[in-house]
């Protein structure tokens, strides 16, 4: 069941005297209850902008974001509407996302619904905070301490507890484990998976760490220059990527094992997002590009039921593919 | 004679009381054209060790042992000679190219300064050499790149420029400290390919520091796994990573998301990493080790030869039967694939993860490899 529905979202960045940058150039994406959706792509592809736009931290130039069928309003100066609080975000840096001068329990309690526990009494709120701390594997005594007393992994647990306080239906997590050591990363990754399963909560997991995403996500969306180029169940993406860019990403991961070889880099650099290439945005770097790719922009179409790809070579075996293979 | 020979290096920071030991009796050799990896968590001493190859010792610290580069001991070398050696015999590339390149100086200024100083080249000759270096690291339109500034380039290109700068004076040894950590996998692949090409074409040796074991596996020839300032195990990179003998190496590998453990919770290393301030007695890893015995708590294990050109510092050596371990790993990967099949089993795996909140039990941690 779809909880979060992102529909044709465009995010623009305007700097006077410069061309408008479409950081997100028309993205549609769904996240179901209890589903972990990975969002991957190179830096500058717009994945963080999309994440921020979903929770209302960036203005939408076009499109809509709905949570449980109700449109999410952009964050303004006032308090967030109660209906939108089901959407929470976890940030990459647990050192800057917590207030250094407030005790942990007060920061977590901020997120508690005022009337959910029946009263606003400090005792009830404290009890609710203790439950949340327990859920993320921290002792209740942690609530009385300040952020500097914790390690990076513990702080990220605190940030997760704070997000959970609002009883969200969906959490957008932007590189939540990237700043952590390998071992701590494993603990926090496990925690996010477990919470999504236990609470039936949707997670949009934004990361450039493809191996981590493969481990956690049920479904993965691959983003390139402001567009989603493929959405596939995680294992299908790895075993048989539909888009040449997904293929390049997967092949670039260095592997363990006796026979692993130095990974191959796709040719060229990521183009300037303010002037994306005509036609398919990936065509200057694509090993399979043919005439049509230079002029026509492929739309994201459904392939094989549960998968989507934006490539003129899809569906596989179609006339375009045979033509390209002939030319290649 | 090897290009770099670090011999029984110990680095101590004097503090009140016992003093903090950053590096404790590390020996390491690097031959020409060889890529040697240093792995370990933050605080393991890998960067401090590598920096001695440039003659750098942390401020106020005392170093004993020897660090011989091309036969000359850097620890006793005078400052003038050290300045000559840095940049010409040995050079370094850091993790963040935005901090190693000066933001307000042109690429030309940054690439030619050392050539003018160390090589005594004329402006024109230095410029020609700089263009050559930029071509080598595949920067498009090098002549134009010289008049540009660092912010004009993407992260991957900046890192390539930093490498060009390090290579300008033809060093025999390059220290690469987490050079691809901040980069995307695609860009990383390009840099790794470049380093491999340079060492094959120029015969340059590389000391490669990274915590990414996948990167380590595909780039380096030999590997030193460090923990708390000591070498835990050492050997050919692929052999060590395919059949680790030290419980710490094993645990590092098990914490990685990998095709082997899909659908299973990741196995975190229990406890906190040892720091120079708080280093446990005996084997520093013993509080986090599932195999620790009494003597591990009191006696520091010596690095000993275990055959196959490998060395290990572990009293217990629980993975001595390499063949059995490989077999168990294969069986475990089979089980992992099966459990991935349905979402129901995925939920089961998640439920198992809830028990792992406080750190997995010994059985969970090592069940897959020792069963």
UniProtKB/TrEMBL annotation, chain A:
GO terms for molecular function: ATP binding. InterPro entries: AAA+_ATPase, ABC_transp_ATP-bind, ABC_transporter-like_ATP-bd, ABC_transporter-like_CS, Oligopep_ABC_C, P-loop_NTPase. Pfam families: ABC_tran, oligo_HPY. Residues 4-250 form the ABC transporter domain. It comes from the Bacteria. Keywords: ATP-binding, Nucleotide-binding, Transport. Belongs to the ABC transporter superfamily. PANTHER family: D,D-DIPEPTIDE TRANSPORT ATP-BINDING PROTEIN DDPF-RELATED (PTHR43776:SF7), TRANSPORT ATP-BINDING PROTEIN (PTHR43776). This is ABC transporter ATP-binding protein. It comes from Herbiconiux daphne.
Automatic annotation (TrEMBL), chain B:
Residues 339-371 are annotated as: Disordered. Coiled coil: none annotated. It is found in: Cell membrane. SUPFAM superfamilies: P-loop containing nucleoside triphosphate hydrolases (SSF52540). Its main location: membrane. Gene3D superfamilies: P-loop containing nucleotide triphosphate hydrolases. InterPro entries: AAA+_ATPase (IPR003593), ABC_Ni/Peptide_Import (IPR050388), ABC_transporter-like_ATP-bd (IPR003439), ABC_transporter-like_CS (IPR017871), Oligopep_ABC_C (IPR013563), P-loop_NTPase (IPR027417). Residues 339-356 have a biased composition (Low complexity). This is ABC transporter ATP-binding protein. It comes from Herbiconiux daphne. The lineage of its organism: Bacteria, Bacillati, Actinomycetota, Actinomycetes, Micrococcales.
């Amino acid at each position: 069941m779809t909880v979060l529905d992102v529909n044709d979202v465009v995010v623009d960045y305007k700097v006077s005297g410069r061309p408008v940058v479409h950081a997100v150039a028309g993205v549609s994406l769904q996240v179901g209850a209890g589903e972990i959706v990975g969002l991957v792509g190179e830096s500058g592809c717009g994945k963080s902008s999309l994440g921020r736009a979903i929770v209302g931290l960036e203005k939408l130039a076009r499109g809509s974001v709905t949570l449980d069928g109700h449109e999410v309003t952009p964050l303004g100066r006032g308090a967030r509407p109660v209906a939108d609080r089901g959407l929470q975000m976890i940030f990459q840096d647990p050192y800057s996302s917590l207030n250094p001068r407030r005790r942990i329990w007060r920061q977590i309690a901020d997120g508690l619904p005022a009337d959910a526990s029946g009263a606003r009494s400090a005792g009830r709120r404290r009890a609710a905070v203790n439950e949340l701390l327990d859920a993320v594997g921290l002792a209740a005594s942690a609530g009385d301490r300040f952020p500097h007393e914790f390690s990076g992994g513990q702080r990220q647990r605190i940030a997760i507890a704070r997000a959970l306080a609002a009883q969200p239906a969906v959490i957008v997590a932007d590189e939540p484990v990237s700043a952590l050591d390998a071992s701590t990363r494993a603990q926090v990754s496990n925690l996010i998976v477990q919470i999504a399963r236990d609470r039936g909560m949707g997670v949009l997991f934004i990361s450039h760490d493809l191996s981590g995403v493969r481990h956690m996500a049920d479904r993965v969306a691959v983003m390139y220059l402001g567009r989603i180029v493929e959405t596939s169940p995680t294992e299908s993406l790895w075993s048989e990527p539909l888009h040449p860019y997904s293929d390049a990403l997967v092949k670039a991961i260095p592997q363990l094992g006796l026979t692993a070889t130095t990974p191959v880099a796709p040719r060229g650099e990521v183009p300037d997002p303010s002037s994306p290439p005509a036609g398919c945005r990936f065509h200057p770097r694509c090993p399979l590009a043919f005439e049509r790719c230079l002029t026509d922009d492929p739309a994201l179409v459904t392939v094989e039921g549960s998968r989507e790809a934006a490539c003129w070579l899809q569906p596989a075996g179609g006339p375009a593919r045979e033509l390209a293979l002939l030319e290649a | 004679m090897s290009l770099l020979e670090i011999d029984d290096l110990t680095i101590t920071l004097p503090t009140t009381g016992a003093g903090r030991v950053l590096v404790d009796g590390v020996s390491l050799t690097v031959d020409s054209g060889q890529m040697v990896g240093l792995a370990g968590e933050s605080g393991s001493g890998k960067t401090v060790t590598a920096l001695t190859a440039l003659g750098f010792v942390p401020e106020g610290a005392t170093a004993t042992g020897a660090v011989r580069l091309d036969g000359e001991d850097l620890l006793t070398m005078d400052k003038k000679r050290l300045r000559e050696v840095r940049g010409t015999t040995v050079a370094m590339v850091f993790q963040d190219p935005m901090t190693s390149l000066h933001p307000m100086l042109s690429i030309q200024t940054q690439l030619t300064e050392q050539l003018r100083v160390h090589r005594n080249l004329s402006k024109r000759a230095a410029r020609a050499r700089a263009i050559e270096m930029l071509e080598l690291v595949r920067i498009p339109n090098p002549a134009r790149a010289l008049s540009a500034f660092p912010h004009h380039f993407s992260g991957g290109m900046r890192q390539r420029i930093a490498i060009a700068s390090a290579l300008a004076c033809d060093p025999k040894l390059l220290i690469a400290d987490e050079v691809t950590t901040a980069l995307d996998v695609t860009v990383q692949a390009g840099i790794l390919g470049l380093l491999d090409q340079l060492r094959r074409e120029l015969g340059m040796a590389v000391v490669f520091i990274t915590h990414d074991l996948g990167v380590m596996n595909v780039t380096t020839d030999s590997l030193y796994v460090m923990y708390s300032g000591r070498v835990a195990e050492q050997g050919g990179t692929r052999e060590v990573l395919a059949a680790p003998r030290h419980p710490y190496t094993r645990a590092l590998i098990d914490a990685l998301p990998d095709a082997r453990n899909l659908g299973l919770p990741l196995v975190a290393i229990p406890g906190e990493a040892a720091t120079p301030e708080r280093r446990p007695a005996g084997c520093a890893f013993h509080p986090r080790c599932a195999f620790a015995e009494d003597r591990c708590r009191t006696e520091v294990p010596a690095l000993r030869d275990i055959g196959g050109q490998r060395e290990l510092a572990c009293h217990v050596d629980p993975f001595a039967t390499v063949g059995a371990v490989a077999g168990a790993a294969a069986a475990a990967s089979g089980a992992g694939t099966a459990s991935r099949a349905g979402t129901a089993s995925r939920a089961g795996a998640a439920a198992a993860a809830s028990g792992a909140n406080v750190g997995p039990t010994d059985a969970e941690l090592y069940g897959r490899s020792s069963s």
